[in-house]
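Model it.
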Amino acid sequence: MARIRFVLLQSIVINLFFVAPFSTSTEFSDNLGSSHRHETSENDEQGNNIEINNKTTNTQTSTQTTPTKTFESIYYNSEIMVNKTLSDEYWLDGKNFTVSQLLSTSVRKAIEVPLTFAFPYYGDPLHYIIINSGGFLFTGGRDRAFLTRMQYIAPLMMNFNASLSNVTTVKYSDNGTAFTVVWEKIPLQEKANKTLRLFTFGVTIHESGHITFAYRVIPVPLNENLSSVLKVGLSDGYSFYKKMKPLNISFLRADEYDVVKFDWEYIQNETLIYNSPRPTCLQHTNCEACVQPTENMSHWLKCSWCQAAKCCSSRSDRNKKKWDNNTCLGGISDAESCPAHNVSGFNEHTDIL
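Modeled.
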């Protein structure tokens, strides 16, 4: 059952938060106040790319290899393993990283970075990503910061505070088909006089839609006492306005329609989590493709076509606004009812709001 949240806001207040998309990397705080900073490439004195090779010692031990655990959900199939060999391959794959000075020295900050490829997240192509210092990627827009609780890719969302350490590095790399972010030696917001515990982990999103979580150093077992926020997984949602006519105000309704959660006990040194996308309704751009069964699609996902909106939807996804605005009601759910047209293509972009 999707979790529904209601936010009561005046329309004029909502408009104050709108920020036009940036064509270059932009840094801004969690309250959406933007500040432009210089981004530096991580190179040595000779200009060579530095490989990730974190040799930080830690107190949590891990086995070299554990059996792979598999999980199936509506939108993703996931594999979790502890494998030193594969972990080394991930971390020692030299990349041309850009270091964010803001994220490496601050708490509760975020930067927006354009992607060189379209990344399909829950079937919706994303062209930029927002990196948060709290150990996650925000997949919504800058003007919709309240959706960070339901639109995220979280290898390890916790109360991290990079300002407590002078060795923390938050960096990212885009090779044209994959985008990687690493939070290296980042400390938790600890109580006074406590020894800092430094975490190193990363995430890679691929043009194919695959998502990899990687954990190099997890210094302590994860538990709810470490942080007031602790999430590992994927989530998506959407928002739309509903008007209350008697009061002449608007309800901004936010709906989290899918969550993929991973148990904290799985997260230790050398853990890898591979998330493979399953077919979604949003990827289809014509009626026949929308209503026909798709290989590997979850049997829980039922797609319908709205001819007026020219969109395919489960009626609980990012096409929700289009569906409602065009009064699609039940839509078309069988091929015989589809209007005649050519069959081709995939969805280029979905506007939520």
